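WARN retry 2 of 3 for item q-0093 after timeout on previous attempt; input resubmitted unchanged.
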Amino acid sequence: MTLELRWALGLFAATIMTAAAVNRLVPAAKSRVRRSAIVFVLYALSLGITYVLRVTGADDWASWFEIATELLRAFALVGIAGTIVFALLFKLVRLSVPTIASDLLVGIAYVITALRVFTQHGLDPLSAFATAGVVSAVLAFSLQSTLGNILGGVALQLDGSIHEGDWIQLENGKQGKVRAIRWRHTLVETRDFSTIVVPNASLLANNITILGWREMAPAPQRMWVWFNVDFRFPPSKVIECVTDALTASPIENVAPDPRPNVVCMDFAKDNRDSFASYAARYWILDLAADDPTNSRVRARIYAALRRAGIPLAVPATANLVEMHDVAHDARHKEQDLERNLAALRTVKLFAPLSSDELRVLADGLWPAQYAAGEKITRQGAVAHWLYILTAGKVEIRRVKDDETSLVAKLEAPEIVGEMGLMTGAPRGADVVAVTPCECLRLGKPAFEKVLLARPEIAQELAGKLATRRMGLYERHDGLDAAASQQKHASETEKILLGIKSFFGL
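OK item q-0093 returned
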């Protein structure tokens, strides 16, 4: 077997193994393998032609094809080596090299190998390059635009002003993620699954905004969500309730630092609006999901305003006519009362109460809505509210030593926060809305009326609280019946003392 044949078989095996590795590990680099395969095919074809010419006695032509064969063999080796280094090895060590940079290095390797082959065969490479320079000068005049784009791509890579993966905004206002900086153009993928092909010269000539980039380092991008509230509600109250809702618990894709905030932006804009304009400002982590994140923030804002009894503003062009009908208002109030009574009857804790006592509690219920991900109660907080969950699902999570553990999952109808209402104790865990939740909130004043009117029910309520606490928050699998009963009696006595102290019984 001749040396050239061994070279051919070795290159063929290397091309096949490289193609298999790229196809398995880096499918996006298939174009490199394709170029190497084309060069190898040309090399094999040139080798075959050289052999045929030698056999037929055309030695002059065979000598020229031998040079071409060696040149193509060197190019094939450079292509395979470039694929292995830039596509495979860099992938394993998690290094990323821009396409233009790797192409330049491979191109330089091509030039060096070509010079070496020409020199070995006694050719003068300088004269060849001088001739190529004249041709290049002629082409430069006819391809100014294309060359400008190519030089622009090289400049973008050298100064590092734009990187693959950056989010940019073009002068026409379109935003997208830089997917690839190529020789002639840059590919920008937009959020609507389309791709903008931007000539590199245009990127250099125009002002481009790099989103989420500050002090030469990636940073969250500030986003705005606007809403309007009429003049009946002071800005301080609106800002406080919405800010609390946005910062009380994490929102998916919203940066924890800087913290979201709310500002009052304007009053009676253009002397036409009958409301104040507010903006919730937050910093987004992934710009690709801007609309879904804005939607989650709006859900928080809406739920917070509803809980605070602050409606969103009605446009000034709307004409509202409201007829006050005493009988209608009475029927509406009675319907709300019946709804509240029905919710109270689902609560086992209030089973000892009479119908009249339940009606007293029903008058003190206040509706409250929570968006998914919001905290209904916070561990360690002191708030004398009980929440009747009428729709949705929640999780009870307890934080200890900076670790959060799931205590229980509850689904409507259920109650949470009962110890805060009954004993005034700080919240023992976070209650987080897993889905959008609707609650009825019961405060201390309404329950105090019932308890002071009939103090003897405190004992039975304490027993029910002890049963719920042991079953929901604690695990006593190792206790026998007697020990469990003793534990229940101890918890009941402790809770009863808390009720008496909190309500002054």
